[in-house]
Write a structure and sequence with these properties.
16% strand, Short-chain dehydrogenase/reductase SDR, alpha/beta, Rossmann fold, oxidoreductase, oxidoreductase activity, NAD(P)-bd_dom_sf
Length: 111
């Protein structure tokens, strides 16, 4: 049964890992054996969490990422491939919102 959740050799990107659910998701993946890419808009907010993941015996690459920025996304993918050679898992946890009533959100807002 333990092998059912064995992620040894897998690489997981978890967005929005500076706090809350992102950290819980990343921690669970690390405990299952995955190496991680952890992200936040503020890189300094990842320092302690990166150390925590590494203390579990896993690798952790901290990357500054604004999920609304295509160049940030491209950079994160390039850094991940350079560091690990692959991406196996993506957890799109980072939150974002459009500050207007849902009845006023346009298709352009979604794009």
């Amino acid at each position: 049964m333990q092998d059912l959740f064995n992620l040894s050799g897998k690489v997981a990107i978890v967005t929005g890992t500076s706090r809350g659910l992102g950290q819980y998701f990343a921690r669970a993946l690390a405990k299952a054996g995955a190496d991680l890419v952890i992200t936040s808009r503020e890189l300094s907010r990842l320092t302690e969490f990166k150390q925590e993941i590494e203390s579990l015996g896993r690798k952790a690459l901290a990357v500054q990422l604004d999920v609304l920025s295509q160049s940030d996304i491209d950079n994160m993918v390039q850094m991940t491939i350079k560091e690990y050679g692959k991406i196996d898992i993506l957890v799109n946890n980072a939150g974002l919102n459009i500050r207007k009533p849902s009845t006023e959100v346009t298709q352009q807002d979604w794009d």
